[in-house]
Amino acid sequence: MIHKKFGPQARLKRFARDVLVHTPFVSMVLLLVSLWLGFAAAIYLAERGIDGSSIASYANALYWGVAAFSTAGIAEAPVSGGAQLIGGIWLVLGSMLFFGTIVATVTTYFMRPMQRPHRKIIDTIEYNLEQLEQLNIDELDLLKETIDTLIVHVERLKGKRPSG
C-alpha cells in the first residue's frame, strides 16, 4: 500500500510548489501581465477618438493585446501610426516573454537537480527526519537502511582520502 503522502496528489503539490518557488514562472507572469496592461492602455490612448478604429475601449485593447501575440491572430489592427508602432513592439515583446516564460520555467525546473544534486539528497533526508512521527515501521526501516548505506559510503570516502 502506498502511503498517502507519496501519492499522485502529494507529487502534484510538490511539483507546483517547486515550479512556483524555484523557477522564474511567477515573476515572468507578473511582468507579462503588467506589460500587457500597460501596452493595452497605450494602444487605447493612441486609438481613442480615431475614426474607423476597432479599439474603442480599454477592454477592446486588452483583447487585442492577447489576440495579437497568440496564434489566434486578429482581424482588426490599430489604425493610427503610433498605435501600430506600440502594437508592433507589444507583439515582439509579448511573444518573447510568453514563450520565454514557458522555456525558462521548464528549463529551470529540470536543470535544478543537476545544479545541486547534493542539496536534493540533503533536503530529502531532512524532510524524512521532520516526518518521523508520521512514518510507519516499513518506511522507518527503509530510512534506516538508506542512512546506514550513506554512513558506509562516507566511511569509504574518508578511507580513500589522502591523509595530510
Structure description:
With 164 residues, the chain is mainly alpha-helical. The chain folds into two domains: 4-115, Helix Hairpins (Orthogonal Bundle), CATH 1.10.287.70; 116-164, no CATH class. The protein is built from six helices and no strands. Helix 4 (81-115) packs across helix 5. It starts with 7 loop residues before the first helix and ends with a helix.
What is the average per-residue confidence, as pLDDT, rounded to a whole number?
82
Number of helices: 6
Strand content: under 5%
- Form type: elongated
Please supply descriptive tags for the structure shown above:
elongated, 164 residues, single chain, Helix Hairpins, 2 domains, mainly alpha
What does the secondary structure layout of this molecule look like, with pairings?
Elements: H1 8-22, H2 25-47, H3 58-69, H4 81-115, H5 117-130, H6 137-160
Helix pairs in contact: 2-3, 2-4, 4-5
Give a nutshell description of this structure:
The chain is an all-alpha fold and 164 residues long. It has helices at residues 8-22, 25-47, 58-69, 81-115, 117-130, 137-160. Helices cover 75% and strands 0% of the residues.
